[in-house]
Give the backbone structure.
Amino acid sequence: MRLITIFGKETNAVYAVQYADEIQDELYRLIFLWNDYEFVSTYLQERNDLLEDAFRADIKIDEAVSEIIEEVRQITIALVDHYDNGTLQQLFMPLRNDDARLYVFQHSKMKHRSRKIRRPKIRIYAIRLDANCYVITGGGIKLTKAMQDCSMLRAEITKLERCTHFLKNHEICDLL
């Protein structure tokens, strides 16, 4: 596991984890994956029973795929914009909705709301190191109400915990 700098340096930065078994860091891997029409289509077909609730409408697979690919485009632009404006903390929210305070090593989620998207489904998960400094650990297409209801998203919780342990053991915050 290693950290790749996406934007910036030190405490004004976005980093992404590159896992030992991957050739790309998590942010680029996910963006590439979520822009793959066939991957998204297959993912949604396998979870067809969840689509109506997730999209808040009766929707065809190809419409849902197009909406998700558009959401990926928008979330990517939002990430760059919030980094440029020094407002990443407004984009990344605590993973737990009842987490009222912000702290180092806090597990966070990024989702993007817009008028074009019925309900955000793309999630990027990260660990907060500072107000404007996050380490992206993974992400997913969230069609269920809770992360725990989807095996792929439960795996993201494990990745967050593994990466937190890695960051603490390597005293990453002391290097910033």
Notes: Residues 7 and 69 are 23 Å apart (CA to CA). Strands lie at 2-9, 12-18, 92-94, 106-110, 122-130, 132-141. The two ends are 18 Å apart (CA to CA). The mean pLDDT is 87.
